[in-house]
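ok so dumb question maybe but i'm new to this and my supervisor (M.) told me to 'just get the structure for NADH dehydrogenase [ubiquinone] 1 beta subcomplex subunit 2, mitochondrial' and walked off. so i did the thing. is this what she meant?? sequence i used:
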Amino acid sequence: MLVSRALLVGRLLNRGAIASKATQTGLRNQIVRHGHDWSYRVNGPKPEMLARVGAQVAGGFMWWWVLWHLFHEYEHITGEFDYPDPSAWTNAELGIPADDLDE
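this is what came out, is it supposed to look like this??
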């Protein structure tokens, strides 16, 4: 364990020495990471087959779930109870004052 820690500290000190030398000479070290494909003005890399099949399966399951529950539990959309008839409401229930009220 001490050896691995010593190697880590040695790498960090080496990086610091290189960075300080670069700033003294006016040069800058730019870290270039090549962890992805470059796709400027072209289509990106095609995903792997497993990712494409997994996306299709997940999308199919999602649509099955939505349509199944829309068919079998449509009350979530339409409501559980019948909509009341507004023509049966009285003025008192609606908060409308009487017509014979003096102004």
